[in-house]
Model the fold of this input.
Amino acid sequence: MKLEQIYQLLELPEEVTDAMNIYRTTKNTVLDADIRQRLAERDTWDSAIQEIRNRIGEDPSGFYILCELMRCACHTYENYQDMKIADSVFAATMKFCTRFLEEHKKTYGVYAFTWAWWFPRQLAMQEFRIGELEYELISSDTKKIYIHIPSDARLTPPAVRSSFDSFQNFLKNHYPDWTDTDWYCESWMLSPALTGLLPDDSNLLQFQKLFDVISTDYESMAVLDWVFPGEGPDLANLSEHTSLQKKLKDFLLSGQKFGWSEGKVRRP
Done:
């Protein structure tokens, strides 16, 4: 697949693709075999991304490194084809780029790509979006699968169950050695504090009930990045556009700690 085809498939904003096209027609690629190999290995992702940044130089909006990583995505697409993974999965997985570009525009008024550090997961075929959720395959001492929750995910119980079932079938068809691997999630959505902020029938609490919470870091304030994107740490000035924002703001202003939790999916 050519770059122009990927741009179209992922529905990237025209302003971004125009900038990437100028870059790739005026600059030689900074990629080489060593960088590509480092992008394929989890232990060397960070150093590879930093090396790409160093070779590119000034890139205030992140469009140049996005262009280089999209070149890698062309090769990833070939691997999808070899494994007979559907184009729909490729598009849904790689559209995390589109989503974060649009979210940056909504929050700050301009397009920028600040998630190059996350992109190797998709390029190395260690993370896939199946239905509403993303699933990351992590091999270390023991295999683990981590669930990530996209900002546009519908977390209704049927939608979540459909994603779980579809991913299980995906594993059977493409990664059979992973079918018995435990699933985990780290998120503000698993914080025990949510039970006092939301009605029992809320989708977030129904999602939370799928997990056994293993640990909670009550010192973490990362929830602000997700519930109040683009806003500073000043609690008194946080938005109150949604009922969750209002309740969480009041909760934090009262001196209580919300935290960030890790949970393990309860097996049937």
About this structure: DSSP finds twelve helices and six strands in the chain. The mean pLDDT is 96. The longest strand covers residues 133-139.
